[in-house]
Amino acid sequence: MQRIANYIDRLSDWLGRSVAWLALAMVLMMVSVVILRYLFQFGSIAMQESIMYMNALIFALGAGYTLKERGHVRVDIFYSRLPQSRRALIDLLGTLVFLIPSMLAIIWLSWDYVGLSWRLREASPESSGLPFVYLLKSAILLLAVLLLIQGVAELIKNWQCWRSKDEAQ
Q1: Quick one: angle between helices 2-19 and 45-68, nearest 10?
Q2: Residue range 92-103, pLDDT digits in tens
Q3: Cα(120)–Cα(71) distance, rounded to whole angstroms?
Q4: What number of other Cβ atoms are within 10 A of residue 143's Cβ?
Q5: pLDDT tier, 16 (very low <50, low <70, confident <90, very high otherwise)
Q6: What is the pTM of this model?
Q7: Does residue 49 sit in helix, strand or coil?
Q8: What residue spans of 42-120 are helical by DSSP H?
């Protein structure tokens, strides 16, 4: 089981570190849009939409990495004062009760939405916009799948942490 968790963690690490470069690309694209607009009176809807696409991909493809690194927002009133085994139990229950059902619901509810977009090969409503809206909408499914997969890794790690403390007593 630990090998599975390690493999998932490595995948999340690679994907998170790779997608982080999109942040730099997004900033450079934004600077380009501003320079072109205000210095050369040239605007590009495709460039503006590409910034939105990069932002969505950073969020969707980086969510699993953020979960792995414990970077998601958590209300930490008592949690930090608890022993490691209790925190593992809380994380284990949170994954089982909230994360996994939520990600399965997102997959279930967005499947037809994304599928219809693919069937239509949905494009931007703007004539000079990007023709890849269906790919962007696919990021919804990727977000849920990547969080679900990383959730499995977190489940394994928290189960092992909780069980090892249980066995030590």
Answers
A1: 150
A2: 999 999 999 999
A3: 36
A4: 22
A5: very high
A6: 0.86
A7: helix
A8: 45-68, 84-94, 100-120
